[in-house]
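Quick one, probably user error.
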């Protein structure tokens, strides 16, 4: 399967497109119909580890067909997870509390680029789903997204290091 040109263009604009990596991502992606609410539970990045270790052997992405800006936003979020995983293939890969920070950052970038009221409203809806009882990784990502957007640079590895540093700071001061 191939990602749409809009999705590929987004990653190229942000200096994240590497042909070999995207070939792997596309070969290991499964598409679902996001219009069917029951299918949405299957969206994600699913990792397979070496037995009794955190060595990442492979992963699959389950993403929606690219119908519109909302499904494209979901795809971007999951593909960023895929990029993080790809960089750790056959290496130690611990998801940790920072695992949602970069996907939230790139969602924010996409929404800023599109300047769509529907997309802005959808992101606000997603943000409103994160509450006090939500998983810590989502609260951290939501809290850090604006700071990362303000400090954004077109360097994924640099943004990854910054996200981990900010996650640690958040964890120390928000107990």
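Nope, works fine. Designed sequence:
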């Amino acid at each position: 399967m191939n990602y749409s040109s809009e999705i590929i263009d987004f990653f190229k604009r942000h200096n994240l497109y590497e042909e070999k990596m995207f070939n792997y991502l596309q070969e290991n992606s499964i598409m679902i119909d996001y219009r069917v609410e029951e299918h949405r539970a299957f969206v994600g990045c699913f990792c397979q580890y070496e037995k009794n270790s955190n060595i990442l052997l492979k992963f699959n992405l389950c993403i929606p067909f690219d119908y519109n800006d909302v499904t494209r936003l979901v795809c971007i979020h999951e593909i960023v997870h895929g990029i993080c995983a790809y960089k750790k293939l056959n290496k130690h890969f611990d998801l940790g509390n920072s695992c949602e920070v970069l996907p939230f950052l790139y969602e924010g970038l996409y929404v800023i680029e599109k300047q769509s009221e529907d997309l802005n409203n959808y992101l606000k809806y997603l943000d409103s789903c994160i509450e006090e009882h939500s998983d810590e990784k989502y609260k951290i990502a939501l809290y850090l997204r604006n700071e990362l957007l303000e400090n954004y640079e077109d360097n994924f590895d640099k943004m990854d290091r910054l996200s981990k540093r900010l996650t640690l700071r958040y964890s120390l001061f928000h107990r």
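Residues 5-152 form one domain.
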